[in-house]
């Protein structure tokens, strides 16, 4: 791996953008989700038991304990944290000196604070991934205090941790699809259900669903190859293999982005892929590549050997794919036949065989980075600077080794025997820091849901209990003729939980009775989660007297029925009642609220007239009518525009300092003060053409008395 200054810069800038998206997306949803009259009020998570501040922070590490000192309740404290996080992240986007370890530490602490009280609406794998990647950004970023610090020799060591996180994420995501024994993954039919059963499909998901079955199966084979064997190339000693791994990983994430709305998760995964790049490849993108030099015989031999090894690796990939997935080309039907040619026990044996070697591979790769950084420190001139660089190297090498060690515990969750054979001290170290979410376990799309049709909960309201009106959400499927939205990078967390709620009975979603209760009360903050535009909410004049929820099965319409540009996106069928008809004061509803601890607990605190609460209310008044995607893209557009203008101004050539000649007014000209010989030569070189410069150099040599 060559120098990593540019990929590291790209990683830190992109992490600032992701933090900005995450904080802004959560901010617009706080009143409805966690407000005093929201679905799950966050103030119920803050139990003031008379303990000291340090004890409270130890029991529940969140900055919300400081809210009362600023005359803020829990909701306002969350809003302040999200506003501070979004503002600080925006500043890091537009100002490079703010992309420092102190700023990223602040962002991590702020997001960790809201995650502590986020409950079910923040318990997603990408929230854990953001916390882990954000903590690694603290180690990767420079320590800028009053000036911008230069690159350090240990940067490659800490940046390697990002590559290890990417490996764990992708490899585990591929493995769990097969260890779950899901018949759709083993039968290579998962994508025939995925596009219509994912949480919030994109407009292209309907078209992807119409692709032939053989292509869907081939796509799953490609997914398995990209997620299981390709991640081992992240640590390959041949640079071009790592570049190849980068492009195939990005390709997978881009295809997911095009067909589904997964907020900032896929963008964050692409950002982790930057750890596979180096300055030379980024300069290749920027058309600033170095001039190729003639290679010596030894270098040419190494280059050809590496090229042959690359061809061998690609050949093995094709051979294993054809062998283990029974690939056959049908030239008559112009299709590719594929099926899994291995059993669960064979795959489990393979997993046992590679889990510990993958750990040793990671240890060797990290050791190489550590030794390389140590060698660079030893080459520094001057005893003091060499000592200072060595001290920094020792600190960050120890930190990298510690992060790698504790990450082995969640990584080995994919294989039971390997997890049990880890050194017991690693389990103790992991347990000590688990509450801070420094490392996590991952495994996406473990089982495919909605095989018999996409389950969807439809909420209906009524005034007289005879005429029922469907309450349509902004983002999740409901109206069969409604177009699919583009939501990412915003995550409508209520819509996501509605998708999970449809997978089981309402008793598995304790928050749902609270949603029905708030809709019966007509709470605007909760209604704002469903429809920002009040004209689209059917009960804007009067809250419904009765609420019920029905379970439907949804399917994408077929292209043969309606054409490729159909206005009918869905077809649906009623299944059963999901939540019975309830009203305010209903014993059944009151019993559920009491059982789940969701009953209103006393009066809420009056709004304070202090400066900070007043400013928070002022900001909320200007934001509450804007949708989440609009807020996020407005922030990103402003930040990207500022960065673009800064880049354009930095590329603008400096204006000439010469003063234009004035017409002769009859007055004697003032002579300029004599300039130094160096300035005279520099100005002369700016005027002369390249050919004249060479002639001038020759004349200077001839006139030189020496």
TrEMBL record:
Subcellular location: Endoplasmic reticulum membrane
A biological process from GO: protein maturation
Entry's Gene Ontology cellular component terms: endoplasmic reticulum membrane
Keywords: Endoplasmic reticulum, Glycoprotein, Membrane, Transmembrane, Transmembrane helix
Keyword rRNA-binding in annotation: no
Lipase maturation factor 1/2 C-terminal domain: residues covered: 438-580
Top-rank lineage group of the source organism: Eukaryota
Main location: endoplasmic reticulum
Ranges of residues in domain Lipase maturation factor 1/2 N-terminal: 123-283
Compositionally biased spans, kind Basic and acidic residues: 676-706
Transmembrane segments: 12-30, 77-95, 102-123, 129-147, 159-176, 218-238, 250-277, 297-326, 347-368, 393-414, 630-649
Region (Disordered): 654-706
Topology of the protein relative to the lipid bilayer: Multi-pass membrane protein
Pfam families (alphabetical): LMF1 (PF06762), LMF1_C (PF25179)
Similarity remark: Belongs to the lipase maturation factor family.
Function as written in the Swiss-Prot or TrEMBL entry: Involved in the maturation of specific proteins in the endoplasmic reticulum.
The name this protein goes by in its record: Lipase maturation factor
Organism of derivation: Paramormyrops kingsleyae
Name of the gene this protein is made from: LMF2
